[in-house]
C-alpha cells in the first residue's frame, strides 16, 4: 500500500485531535498526536527540574528519554503517562520546551520514522510546513481563542481537573503567542494548506470538508 500523509496544524483547542481521530477511523489511517510527544518531554522537564537554559542538561535529558507510542497510549521511559501529560501544569510549560531546537530535532526525526510508508494523519503545529512539506493533504484548523478556551475547560471539567475559564483562556493565548513567534518551526499556515475555521462549523461539517479534500487525492 502506498503511503498517504494528511497533516492538521493549528492552535491549541482548535479541534485537531478530535477530527484527526475521526478521519483515522473513517479511512483506517494511523493517527499520531505530535503534541503529546512534546508534552512527554515537558513532563520529564517538570519531574527532573531540567533547566531550559542549560544546553548540556537538555542534551543529557534527550539521551535519557525514551518515548513509546502505542495508538493513543503514551509511554515515557516505560510508564504510561497518557493522563499525566494533559494537566494544566504540563500545558503551561510545553511551549517553551517545544521552542528548543534540540527537542524539535529529536521529535521531528521520530515523527518521520513513525510515518514512513504509512497511511497516516498527524496533528501538530509544523506538520505541513517543516515535517511533511510534501504531505498529500494539509489542513490548517483554527477557531477563536474564546471558543478554544471553552472547549479545553469542558475537557478539564470532564476529567475533574480544576481550572477557571480565565486561566485557560490566558494559557491558550500565551501558548499561541510562543508557538507562533518562536524561531524554530513556528505555527504558521503552509501556503498550500486548506484553512478551516471550526468556530463556525460543527464537527460533522469539518469532517465532511476534510474528507472531500482526501477523497480528491486518495
Ligand atoms: O497539540 P497540543 O496542544 O497538545 O500541543 C502541545 C504543545 O506542543 C503546543 O502548544 C506546542 O508548543 C507544541 N507542539 C509543537 N509542534 C507540534 C505539536 C505540538 O511545537 N508539532
Automatic annotation (TrEMBL):
Residues 6-215 form the Cytidylate kinase domain. InterPro entries: Cytidylate_kin (IPR003136), Cytidylate_kinase_dom (IPR011994), P-loop_NTPase (IPR027417). Its main location: cytoplasm. The keyword Transferase applies. Pfam families: Cytidylate_kin. Its EC number is 2.7.4.25. GO terms for molecular function: ATP binding; dCMP kinase activity. The keyword 4Fe-4S does not apply. It catalyses: CMP + ATP = CDP + ADP; dCMP + ATP = dCDP + ADP. It comes from the Bacteria. One of its GO terms (biological process) is pyrimidine nucleotide metabolic process. ATP binds at residues 10-18. Signal peptide: none annotated. One of its GO terms (cellular component) is cytosol. Keywords: ATP-binding, Cytoplasm, Kinase, Nucleotide-binding, Transferase. It is found in: Cytoplasm. NCBIfam families: cmk (TIGR00017). Belongs to the cytidylate kinase family. Type 1 subfamily. This is Cytidylate kinase.
